Amino acid sequence: GKGGGGGGKARKVPLSGVDLNLPASALHQSYADHTWPMVANRVAGVRFKSENLREQWNFYSGLLGMHVIQRDKPGEISFGYLPQGGFLAGQHAPFSLTFTKSNSEISHGKAFGHITVTTDNVPRLFQRVSRSNATIVRKPASAAEGRTQIAIVGDPSGYKVMLLDRNRDYQEPMCRVKLNVRNLEKSITFYRDILGMDVFRTHNSGERREKLAWVGYGHETNATALELAYHGGSKLPQGNGFEVMTLVTPNIDAARQYLEKKGANFEMETDRGSGRPKAITVRDPDEFMIRLVDEDFYQQGLLAGLRNAIPPPESESESDAWASSVSPPGCEGEGEPAKPSGEGEEDKKEADTDATPAETPAAPVEDDGAADGEQEQVQEAPAQEDDAGDKKEGAEGDSSHDE
């Protein structure tokens, strides 16, 4: 009011700008302008080798309920969770797991940790999975313990999958990819300063010498994050099963200029037809291969597969029958998904060229031990450090500490 009194007539003043004092949690923690070309990136998928694609189909679609979202390439199949109602034009493609057929022995090493999948009922899904040929790494805690429901299983090819209670904090069904690293600070610096990811949070388990950091794009609750785990500093054998992690970027040219300015070592890939920049390949401090793909090229590559995605079984009985069948719907041959009609013998030959010599003998998934932070003795109660971690994260709004 006029003169500062409360009874004067208020004047309408044009609003040209407002300074808001928001908490840090409400702001995009992108470490200022120096990461601006990268903050719109997203973690889009990972690719592994597998000796038997048919078994992977049974496991990921038949048991875990994923759609088959890509199968038009010989010797390759991709899985992902589609939103209810299917994929719509303009939506981002879902996070995907891709497996390529390998005719040689696969070694898993110790560097890759696991994929985390959220579910409404961990014990129930665990019981279904345990009736299959999956390897049991960690059983869920009993309801009487009052702890976060977590279980860890190994898929038919030996890759670990964590089953985590779904809650309002996680909107992405495949919410995390865990990588074991030998220098956490160096890894954080790479993913934050080179790839432009945010550091969502960190955790130090104390006695177990395990340190964790969760990094990613956007917000941890609605995106797939990377969980970086440090276990003592020794270099962990990477094996040959993990092939590449895919990041999608809306502007590949801006990403290239940004990486050049940072002095990063990378390889540029151009599209054969148009000659346009298509993808950039870099390696993190632990030699994990990371591929930044242009958004347009990535969406075009998945669009046909998403429109013709094969849904998972509609009921548990159908799922159990499917998982135990000799061949799931649409699958043929020795462990390979059916190829679309019209593919020639030339494509078939290409499918047999991906064999890679194994670096070390394949290790059973249970032998991950402290290198992956998971508990080997699944018959025993979870360690006290794990319980403390669960309680701590529950207080922070993320009841999912996984060792």
Automatic annotation (TrEMBL):
Bias-annotated ranges (Low complexity): 354-364
Any one of the GO CC terms: cytoplasm
Naturally occurring in which organism (per UniProt): Lotharella globosa
PANTHER family: LACTOYLGLUTATHIONE LYASE (PTHR46036)
Identification of the protein by name: VOC domain-containing protein
Transmembrane stretches, start-end: none
Basic and acidic residues biased stretches: 389-403
Biological processes, Gene Ontology terms: methylglyoxal catabolic process to D-lactate via S-lactoyl-glutathione
Start-end of Acidic residues biased regions: 365-388
